[in-house]
Write a structure and sequence with these properties.
By secondary structure, the protein is an alpha+beta fold. The protein has helices at about 1-15, 95-100, 150-155, 170-175, 175-190, and strands at about 20-25, 30, 35-40, 40-45, 45-55, 70-75, 110-115, 130, 160-165. The chain is globular and about 65 Å long.
Length: about 190
């Protein structure tokens, strides 16, 4: 009975709070990055950009700057999350619904950031709050729960909120640099 009441209250809360206007379009919320222009959207007067590449890397290699892109890159939805070695992504319908949980989609190309700010190109300097998700470097993402969204912090504190997805587990933390010399030596020896 309590879970049914909680579920109904949650639905009512989401229905009441989700009527804010979203503004987007070809020339709305467009700004420059080091790699090219991005286009986000405006929600509750906050400029929002999601899934912007901040680096790229091949498996077990050091990240590099992303390749610049031409035109305007759409940045309106979260990017991929790191693959998880632990089966923590098994969905439990009731708790997923109650907490509005979202595992996202996985891809090794997951070096993405999300940005919320109350203004762009207005000449105002704002403090930047960088937030990284929990999970002990083995699980998690920047989008799992609604509380991870930076809109309210950006609005209330007039700060730029930045969150990231990054490589986890061995994809992000396995250091094979000691073996590179052995590989080079064995390759030269074969020549």
């Amino acid at each position: 009975m309590k879970s049914s009441i909680f579920g109904l209250l949650l639905i009512a809360f989401v229905a009441i709070t989700s009527h804010a206007q979203i503004t987007t379009g070809e020339n709305i919320a467009v700004t420059n990055t080091e790699s090219g222009k991005v286009r986000g959207y405006i929600h509750n007067s906050i400029y929002t950009y999601k899934g912007i590449p901040y680096a790229e890397a091949k498996r077990f290699e050091m990240p590099q700057k992303p390749k610049p892109w031409q035109g305007i890159r759409s940045s309106m939805s979260y990017g991929p999350v790191a693959p998880l070695t632990d089966p923590t992504t098994s969905v439990q319908d009731e708790s997923e619904f109650a907490f509005h949980h979202d595992w996202g989609y996985t891809n090794e190309d997951c070096l993405r950031l999300n940005i919320w700010t109350s203004g762009i190109n207005d000449g105002k300097k704002r403090p930047v709050m960088f937030w990284i998700h929990g999970g002990g470097f083995t699980a998690g993402s920047s989008q799992e729960l609604p509380s991870y969204d930076g809109e309210n912090l950006s609005k209330k504190g007039d700060v730029v909120v930045v969150s990231i997805n990054h490589r986890l587990n061995i994809l992000g933390f396995l250091d094979l640099s000691a073996y590179q010399l052995i590989l080079v030596y064995s390759t030269l020896k074969q020549l």
